[in-house]
Design a protein that fits this description.
heterodimer; A: 111 residues; mainly alpha; elongated; B: 210 residues; 11 helices
Amino acid sequence: MAALVLVVLATGIFAVRTVRRAMFWRAHHDEVIRPWMSIPYVAHSYRVPPHVLYQALGITPQPHDRRPLNQIARGQNRSVDEVISVLNDAISRERAYHPPGAPPPEPGRSP
Amino acid sequence: MNITDQLLGALSQYGLPVLFAVIMIAAVGIPLPISMMLVAAGSFVELGEMKLWQVIVVASAGAVIGDQIGYGLGRWGGHRVVARIRRRGSGATKIAQAEAFAKRWGAAGIFLTRWLITPLGPWLNLTSGMAAYPWTRFFLWDVLGEVLWVVMYVMLGKFFSDRVQALVEILGNLAWVIVGLIAALILGWKLLRYLQPAEPLKGAKIVAER
């Protein structure tokens, strides 16, 4: 009986967490930028052109760039938090100029 | 950086060999963020950084090989440990129950713990080996279940490629909800049977009517 109560309680907690997370997902579209992400992934997730992010970090865009942000940070002698902060600022600026849903800007014309 | 960030960073940079190694080690029973790895691999497919068929083949191979190692450990490597447990008081009963479970739920248990009740997968590999469940049948159901699991998670990652972290959190919680529901159903059923009064024997009833 005690085992059944415990199992039902634990299942209920996980069910509530699942529903809450799903509701949060519907309301918030952006992922938190993490050190494992590559610049193309961040650009894809935030729906901004990759060259905007490369420009913000002062890096030349590379085809098939799979470097995670922590490696880029090491290469630039910065902390990964600093790199993430630069990317967040660049995304905010880009969205202010080109709100999501508007036609994508051409490379090189971004502020 | 936590282990998830490190493994995902390695997956992003080195691709398939990392995916294979992490999934194989996790299948043996070491807790690693494999759901996240598969979903992230799906998003890399969508980005054009990985090929879908390669991801499915390599991830499925890693999972199946890891499962065979777990089965082998239970069947051949675990004999000394099993013998020791058997010698102890309640140990023999527990081993007998585990073996009975593996034999009773054999095919269905193996198949479902590959893709639906994944937290139990490594445990069932060991008990299947301990119960000497026929290896060819274990292998067949293992391959079917693992391929289904890999395809499911990689395709989810491909379709929701811009929100893999949130997706994995939802899937992780959902897996435990399923495990909990199954456990609650089994416990509830046992409790009901325990609380029901035993039916009188038919013969006894006829004698009483006379």
